[in-house]
């Protein structure tokens, strides 16, 4: 017997179902898109018994009864007309040296340690989960040709150099995924989701563009810190402080949702003073793999589920959302921004292939969100960040 928890997308309905499952699975489709081909046996996992260590990663995929009953993804404002990103911006990347909130460059590990010390448990608890990219400040490049712009490419995942058994990695929860904390230009503190990504220099953390820079007319964030596999205040691998922040120029200048991608280059840190990918491993990456993926796993720290204190996941098929964006079923909201969308997520080692990141909600109430389609632009940003990374 497998016990599954199935929640309707309302604030008042919840029911537990019990299934007898032998072999096989249940297929669920919506307008021809598979929601989760492994739903019957894999998606809604019940926590292990109290005799086991830790808990399962919690699923946030919801069964939508009707459009009128879906839980709204909270968005602020209405769409506003903005200038379209230029061709040069679409092909460009922008960077800044990471800084403290008082403007000092974080160019050495002594300053990085100051930033880590700045993030006390009280400050981390008080950080506001950043809202999903607001359409009022963003543009969608509907004139852009909607197709892969090159051959399909892959970066393979990397396992950590450090043995992680002693910190009890939990089934389904990825040590590669964590929370990022930063200071906003107005002096507030905020957080997003992010994940380490494999590269030769082992220093890259990928997130959404709006989690490193405010977008059109805005500024870069400061005191930028990554906490892999954060949970309820715990930092099992320590913390890593950004050395440099990068984003697509079209995001920085025009808040283009097609280009809502960011990569941070990290100082050595954590509990062992190593590089971030050496410590926790890194997801692989795929680009130009097409809009329709039969099973995508999105991970993040949504404030509407668990208060942003633990990882949740959604699993769904993806489809083209217009422009260079893809869409999937999920009702994670604030705080999940920047979390990875993963192909072939392995719940035994917590690794997969990043194929997008959480960017913004589609329409309030429909339980879907969008991410930038990974084409040659993400590979350009990835190569740009890797080239800026110290050895």
Automatic annotation (TrEMBL):
InterPro entries: Glutamyl_endopeptidase (IPR050966), Peptidase_S1_PA (IPR009003), Peptidase_S1_PA_chymotrypsin (IPR043504)
Keywords: Signal
Coiled coil regions in record: none
Name under which the protein is recorded: V8-like Glu-specific endopeptidase
Species whose genome carries this gene: Micromonospora citrea
Lineage per the UniProt record: Bacteria, Bacillati, Actinomycetota, Actinomycetes, Micromonosporales
